């Protein structure tokens, strides 16, 4: 468990530097700047939660970190080397960094057995030429994902499994290639509360047993609290607050983080419901990009109101907060 002690001593496995991803505008309109200057690192054996409201750019950033979306500018590095976007190099990268998708029903082919679903990655990468080796690798991955004895699941189809079991099959499919890192996009969003706890426990166990690094994308701050070492809070394409999970979630400094936390049932903060238009990456406001919705600015912003509306904030590198308030 790395929750405190080893922070800062681990070289990043995955990092993004000044990453930008834009999508062309519709009918000649302005481009959507979905990721707009992000720096982020995930260390060896570290779990980082990326949190923020719907549409803030989490999935786009996660996909770019896996090389699935080419950046408009900026750099993604793995093991200290910038990604090579040639098809051959990307294929090799996908063995080391695996995506675990949000919806296990949608990401599993209903006509494929559990065995075939888990073996698919091995076959794509031609990892095993001998059937016995493939069978052993599939059994190991299912076991690691908590489906035991694995042979009992080999010939089952997705519709014969519970939601939690399907999510475990998706995780086994990622683990079978023995990656160094997984990126999980809302890994428990479609599961009910009891199963959610089991999958979180599984992710923590995988980190302890395999030293796996993980970036967990979620809009659920409770999930971040339960699983992550560090958290990065994203708003409209930027990270606005980042740090150890205990610090950010017990003593949030950015007004946006405070508002997100204040509406959790157990929060001691007075509930702050964010008003104003939902953020639109085709129309990023001048000054602080959160200013039109900021409760601190609405309350006077302690002498920095003029800067809030006019002065853009530098991008956040490393831990800290992007806000003009001291
Ligand atoms: N292919 C695309 N073309 C144009 N715009 C896109 C594309 N993909 C994403 N966007 C826009 O980029 C922004 C960020 O989308 P993204 O899916 O990354 O958000 P998210 O934080 O993952 O949201 P959610 O929590 O709802 O999954 C959104 O405004 C979305 O409409
Ligand atoms: S810079 Fe100003 S508008 Fe932006 S979050 Fe801080 S107080 Fe609010
Ligand atoms: Mg998403």
Explain what this protein looks like in three dimensions.
Keywords: ATP-binding, Nucleotide-binding, Transport. Belongs to the ABC transporter superfamily. The chain contains twelve helices and eleven strands. The chain is an alpha/beta fold. It has a domain at 252-321. A hairpin with a 2-residue loop joins β4 (73-78) and β5 (81-82). It has helices at 58-65, 87-96, 104-107, 114-124, 131-144, 163-175, 193-210, 221-227, 245-250, 255-262, 295-298, 305-310, and strands at residues 12-23, 32-43, 47-51, 73-78, 81-82, 97-100, 181-185, 213-218, 230-235, 238-244, 320-321. The structure holds adenosine-5'-triphosphate, iron/sulfur cluster and magnesium ion.
User: Strand pairing plus helix content: what structural class?
Assistant: alpha/beta
**Shape call:** globular
- Terminal Cα span: 34 Å
How can the largest sheet be summarized? 7 strands, mixed
How large is the count of helical segments? 12
Features:
single chain, 326 residues, alpha/beta, seven-stranded mixed beta sheet, 12 helices, binds adenosine-5'-triphosphate, binds iron/sulfur cluster, binds magnesium ion
């Amino acid at each position: 468990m790395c929750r405190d002690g080893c922070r800062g001593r681990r070289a990043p496995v995955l990092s993004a530097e000044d990453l930008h991803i834009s999508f062309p505008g519709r009918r000649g309109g302005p481009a959507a700047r979905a990721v707009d200057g992000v720096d982020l690192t995930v260390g060896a054996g570290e779990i980082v939660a990326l949190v923020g409201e719907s549409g803030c750019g989490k999935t786009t950033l996660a996909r770019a970190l896996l090389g699935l979306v080419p950046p408009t500018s900026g750099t993604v590095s793995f093991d200290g080397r910038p990604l090579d976007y040639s098809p051959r190099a990307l294929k090799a990268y996908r063995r080391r960094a695996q995506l675990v998708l949000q919806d296990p029903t949608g990401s599993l082919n209903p006509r494929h057995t559990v065995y075939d679903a888990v073996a698919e990655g091995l076959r794509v990468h031609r990892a095993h030429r001998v059937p016995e080796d493939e069978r052993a690798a599939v059994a190991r991955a299912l076991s690691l994902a908590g489906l035991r004895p694995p042979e009992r699941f080999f010939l089952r189809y997705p519709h014969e499994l519970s939601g939690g079991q399907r999510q475990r099959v998706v995780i086994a499919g990622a683990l079978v290639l023995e990656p160094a890192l997984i990126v999980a996009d809302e890994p428990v969003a479609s599961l009910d509360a009891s199963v959610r706890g089991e999958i979180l426990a599984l992710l923590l166990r995988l980190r302890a047993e395999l030293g796996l690094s993980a970036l967990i994308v979620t809009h659920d701050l409770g999930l971040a609290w339960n699983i992550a070492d560090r958290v990065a809070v994203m708003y409209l394409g930027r990270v606005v607050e980042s740090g150890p999970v205990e610090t950010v979630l017990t003593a949030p400094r950015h007004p946006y983080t405070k508002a997100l936390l204040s509406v959790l049932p157990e929060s001691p903060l007075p509930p702050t419901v964010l008003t104003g238009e939902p953020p639109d990456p085709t129309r990023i406001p001048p000054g602080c990009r959160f200013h039109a919705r900021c409760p601190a600015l609405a309350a006077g912003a302690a002498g920095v109101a003029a800067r809030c509306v006019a002065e853009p904030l530098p991008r956040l590198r490393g831990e800290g907060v992007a806000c003009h308030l001291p």
